[in-house]
């Protein structure tokens, strides 16, 4: 499906909430490989091309939220600038107050998108997907683990026990969500699914509830077959009240770190399959962008923008079903 065709189909869209952090910019050294620009480019692109988006600045995740997934020592070390050089190198960013603020906002955006999804069916974080952060350390450009934090935050906010508000994390970034798997390893209330390049970073994998490792050069059909199988397993094992979806752009064939060969059309089919899975089961879904390191940054932005356009169409479909259900329950007064 061409992205332009998706945008045309959204002319009469019910609004979808999107949370952004791109104005919290990391002061990175010249030549740093992290694609900071993609976030502002993405917001500009979807504002122009996806009607019906309701844009919101991401709230700040405070310590009480961060401590749901991270140790006190680590949160204090990050916040106070006490990370040693080895821990900064593992994260991939030099410490700065801006790094702390952006990382808190990125986690806050996934928390806010998760809460909005419960009300609206779907919402998006225009960043997030920081799945390499462990309880006591960061890694791979990830400081705080937004999906793990948001999962436990939403369970707390639900007013129910965690067992009565199960959450599924569907991680389709090309890299395994090692930090997420580690944090949630012994938590039966959150199901972690990771579909990733088997030989790609991280080279020491953690055990998710379901890991599907893919061969280098994997293309659309093999990937989608693996995804269908993974979602079938998830459906058989777990009944989530919320899905957090990491929609990485890095499985794209033009990604310099991905090593897979998915086309733009294949990635649209991937996203649609996840959205259909949620729609058919009436499960709210919060979407994060996760990784994307295209040789051409415009390719990465195009993948992310396509995900948001499809998410917006999902919001429209969800709202239309609500409207139809309300209409079917309306009983006119007798004459």
Please, could you describe this protein's structure?
It is a single chain. With about 325 residues, this protein is of the alpha/beta class. It is about 45% helix and about 10% strand. It contains 11 helices and 8 strands. The protein has helices spanning about 5-10, 35-50, 65, 70-80, 85-90, 95-120, 145-155, 180-185, 220-235, 265-280, 295-330, and strands at about 15-20, 55, 120-125, 165-170, 190-195, 210-215, 240-245, 285-290. An 8-stranded parallel sheet has the order 2-1-3-8-7-4-5-6, sandwiched between helices. Helix 2 (about 35-50) crosses helix 11 (about 295-330). The radius of gyration is 19 Å and the shape is globular. It starts with a helix and ends in a 7-residue tail after the last helix. Residues about 5-15 and about 330-335 have low confidence and may be disordered.
Protein traits:
335 residues, alpha/beta, 8-stranded parallel beta sheet, 11 helices, 12% strand, globular
């Amino acid at each position: 499906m061409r992205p332009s065709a998706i945008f045309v189909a959204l002319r009469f869209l019910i609004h979808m909430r999107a949370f952004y952090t791109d104005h919290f910019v990391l002061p990175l050294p010249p030549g740093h490989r992290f694609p900071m620009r993609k976030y502002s480019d993405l917001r500009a692109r979807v504002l122009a091309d996806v009607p019906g988006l309701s844009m919101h600045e991401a709230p700040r995740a405070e310590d009480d939220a961060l401590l749901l997934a991270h140790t006190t020592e680590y949160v204090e070390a990050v916040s106070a600038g006490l990370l040693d050089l080895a821990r900064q190198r593992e994260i991939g960013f030099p410490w700065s107050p801006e790094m702390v603020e952006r990382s808190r906002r990125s986690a806050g955006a996934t928390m806010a998108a998760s809460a909005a999804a419960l009300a609206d069916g779907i919402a998006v974080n225009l960043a997030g997907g920081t799945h390499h952060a462990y309880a006591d350390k960061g890694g791979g450009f990830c400081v705080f683990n937004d999906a793990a934090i948001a999962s436990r935050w939403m369970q707390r906010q639900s007013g129910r026990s965690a067992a009565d508000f199960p959450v599924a994390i569907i991680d389709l970034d090309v890299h395994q969500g090692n930090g997420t798997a580690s944090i949630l390893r012994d938590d039966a209330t959150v199901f972690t699914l990771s579909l990733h390049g088997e030989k790609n970073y991280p080279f020491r994998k953690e055990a998710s509830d379901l890991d599907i490792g893919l061969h280098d050069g994997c293309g659309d059909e093999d990937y989608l077959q693996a995804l269908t199988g993974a979602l079938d397993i998830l459906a058989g094992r777990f009944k989530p009240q919320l899905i957090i979806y990491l929609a990485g752009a890095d499985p794209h064939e033009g990604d310099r770190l991905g090593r897979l060969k998915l086309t733009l059309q294949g990635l649209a089919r991937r996203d649609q399959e996840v959205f259909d899975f949620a729609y058919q089961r009436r499960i709210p879904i919060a979407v994060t962008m996760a990784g994307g390191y295209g040789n051409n940054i415009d390719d990465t932005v195009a993948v992310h923008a396509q995900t948001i356009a499809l998410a917006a169409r999902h919001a429209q479909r969800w709202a239309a079903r609500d409207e139809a259900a309300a209409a079917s329950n309306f009983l006119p007064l007798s004459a």
